[in-house]
Amino acid sequence: IRKNRKISDSRREKTQEKRLPVEKNAGKPDLFKRPKSSQKSNALTPKNQSQVFQLTRVGKLTEFVSSLTHEISQPLTAILSYAQAAKRMLGGREPKVQEILQYIINDDLRAAEVIQRFRTLLKTGESEINPLDINALIDETVLFIAVDAKVRNISIKIELERNLPFIRGDRIQLQQVFLNLISNSFDALEGIPFIREIFIRTFLKNTETIQVEVTDTGCGIPKHNISNLFARFFTTKTDGLGLGLYISRAIVEMHEGVLNVKNNAARGVTFYFTLPASKKANP
Ligand SMILES: Nc1ncnc2c1ncn2[C@@H]1O[C@H](COP(=O)(O)OP(=O)(O)OP(=O)(O)O)[C@@H](O)[C@H]1O
Ligand SMILES: [Mg+2]
Questions:
Q1: Å from CA of 213 to ligand 2 middle
Q2: Do residues 38 and 56 make contact, with C-beta atoms less than 8 angstroms apart?
Q3: pLDDT at residue 16 tops 90
Q4: Which domains does the chain have, with CATH numbers?
Q5: How many other C-beta atoms lie within 10 A of the C-beta of residue 91?
Q6: Taking the alpha carbons of 8, 11, 17, 18 in that order, is the dihedral positive or negative?
Q7: DSSP code, position 166
Q8: CA 191 → CA 9, 64, 146, 201, 242, distances in Å?
């Protein structure tokens, strides 16, 4: 029951009304600060104007999330310490009330974790759009998780098409997409006794589009789950939050790409996403 739950809008409103007073103007100036990317927009040619608009929106979203998480984190910390104090004061008395206080503590911690995940995954406030070599980013990311893969006895293979055009994007955010997909593959390969492999591939789909694929030989996805996979809070893991794919898709879409999944013919799944090739010559 604790999985896949959604807070209804009315409950959300109530929470808002009852929230504890927070620092006046906390986080507010951030909302109005011009995103870094728009400050640079003068340097871009009119050809890229639609991209500029897109990138400004990315900046706005990350800054909004940053302010929001800041505002919510404070009352959450307060609720946690009040509940913990009340529990301590009760000592061994009132076991029923103690149980309820523990629910409050657990739910508070879970909410704080969700916020923390958003923060890390969107690297809020640091959105920076640059020309990127997606192959170099993959090499870097694979290096980053190589030790982890080795410990898990998983081999990572890469096949990157040479001389791909650059893309324009946020390095950290796109790296998060790879890390999310790879960490899901790690989970899917847990306990698989056959080939334990992750295969990362890039290629030019057409003159304007680069495609990236992350394939694994893991447990695969039951047909009935495929349509829910990218929904917020959808998870089949006991310790999952169900945010990885939701946020990954949001990041890819913010980069004007599409992220999707298919089961492989033999074993495991392939997550694949597109990114528009930058029209400007490579720097
Ligand atoms: N490579 C994969 N192989 C099999 N199933 C997968 C794979 N990737 C994702 N899934 C399924 O999709 C669900 C949602 O994935 P998602 O990354 O959004 O959340 P999570 O991994 O459960 O939790 P979180 O990423 O927030 O820690 C997973 O719980 C799992 O059931
Ligand atoms: Mg995940």
A1: 16
A2: yes
A3: no
A4: 9-122 (1.10.287.130), 129-276 (3.30.565.10)
A5: 8
A6: negative
A7: P
A8: 40, 40, 19, 24, 21
> CA 160, 164, 170: angle at the middle one, nearest 5?
90
Q: Is 235 in the pocket of ligand 1 (CB under 6 A)?
A: yes
- CA 130 / ligand 1 centre spacing (Å): 29
Q: Does ligand 1 lie within 6 Å of residue 236's CB atom?
A: yes
The torsion angles phi and psi of 221, rounded to 5 degrees, stand at: -120, 125
pLDDT of residue 24: 36
What is the rounded CA–CA span in Å between residue 75 and residue 146?
39
Q: How far is the CA of 57 from the centre of ligand 2 (A)?
A: 25
Nearest ligand for residue 120 CA: 1
Q: Tens digit of pLDDT for each residue in 228-275?
A: 999 988 999 988 888 899 989 988 998 999 999 999 999 999 999 999
